[in-house]
Amino acid sequence: MDSQLVLSLKLNPSFTPLSPLFPFTPCSSFSPSLRFSSCYSRRLYSPVTVYAAKKLSHKISSEFDDRINGALSPDADSRFLDRQKALEAAMNDINSSFGKGSVTRLGSAGGALVETFSSGILTLDLALGGGLPKGRVVEIYGPESSGKTTLALHAIAEVQKLGGNAMLVDAEHAFDPAYSKALGVDVENLIVCQPDNGEMALETADRMCRSGAVDLICVDSVSALTPRAEIEGEIGMQQMGLQARLMSQALRKMSGNASKAGCTLIFLNQIRYKIGVYYGNPEVTSGGIALKFFASVRLEIRSAGKIKSSKGDEDIGLRARVRVQKSKVSRPYKQEERKHCST
């Protein structure tokens, strides 16, 4: 050890080693005649420095510590009970004004889980997290002859097997009872509506939904929901946005009614192509974008090839690929592939 340092320690027994917080900085005016502690005390242990060190080590206290560091509880907040009483009073006032159940706690209402029913295809049920959701809007879209109606008929058959009532709004006027019966649909008890225009189709579906006696309503298809103004007008007249406005207005009413009644609404939709699109996907579904927003589940179905007979000289079925494009009840973007034989 340096002799000067030994001398300083002897002269100033109260000297303590420097804190790791402050680096050891030699004094430029150091000389053997000066005391070691006096030189460094001016640099490191001034009142301002000591105050700053104490300030760093102190925890800043606040009256909101209990709220920031933990949840509100009766011990942490003396006003907890008063807040709960005010909350219950507000909920009771709203329920008395708008009806019982307008505002409720999710746990007491038993709505923590979304009820589902089978789509008739096991792999699709797994991709959907259990099946098609009850009381929600579902859109099934894809090109022609991809299996949209077949998938919807499978869902109708499953609802009927569970003892429920199902309705088919055949806007395309192309319902085949024999084919539906082959898929397991009880055609004798199936409710069928073949409307004259789009307003009639959606109004009929809404009334059946509000009755609370129907578990599934399938609209086949959105592209065939022709507005009354377009039917009454001449062919070739420009009717811009009529179908989109019709769907937007109808879904604003039907989505809430379906949720209250527990009725699932399935809309089958076709694909159109945008004109003049050279970059990106030119495909678009008809009926505007309202259905995309209101739908809790959107299924894209496409043909994945034909199924040949054992001899290979005849097409006996279709292989379809279903992709979950949107799902508010499970993880989306899953896909499954199924086979459907026509013979």
Topology diagram in text:
Blueprint: H1 3-11, H2 36-44, H3 47-57, H4 65-69, H5 80-98, H6 106-109, E1 116-117, H7 122-127, E2 132-133, E3 137-141, H8 148-161, E4 166-170, H9 177-182, E5 191-193, H10 198-210, E6 216-220, H11 228-232, H12 242-261, E7 264-269, E8 271-273, E9 283-285, H13 290-294, E10 297-308, E11 315-327, E12 335-341
Parallel strand pairs: 3-7, 3-10, 4-5, 4-6, 6-7
Antiparallel strand pairs: 1-2, 8-9, 10-11, 11-12
Helix pairs in contact: 10-12
Report on this structure.
Helix 10 runs parallel beside helix 12. The longest helix is centred in the C-terminal third of the chain and has 20 residues, at 242-261. The strands form three sheets. The chain has an eight-stranded mixed sheet with strand order 5-4-6-7-3-10-11-12, with helices on both faces. Strands 1-2 form a two-stranded antiparallel ribbon. A two-stranded antiparallel ribbon has the order 8-9. It is an alpha/beta fold and 343 residues long. The protein is globular and about 80 Å long. It starts with a helix and ends with a strand. It has 13 helices and twelve strands. The protein folds into three domains: 3-57, no CATH class; 68-112, no CATH class; 118-341, P-loop containing nucleotide triphosphate hydrolases (Rossmann fold, 3-Layer(aba) Sandwich), CATH 3.40.50.
